[in-house]
Amino acid sequence: MRITGVELIPIRLPLVEPFIISYGTFPDVESVLVRLETDDGTTGWGEGTPDPHVTGETFGGVLETLRLLAPTLLGRDPLDRTALISDLDRRISGNPTAKAAIDIALHDLVGRATGLPVWALLGGRSRTHLTISRVVSMKTPSEMAADAVAHVGAGFNTVKLKIGDANDVALDIRRVAAVREAVGPDIAIKIDVNQGWRTPGIAIQGA
Question: How many CB atoms lie within 10 A of CB 155?
Answer without folding.
Answer: 8
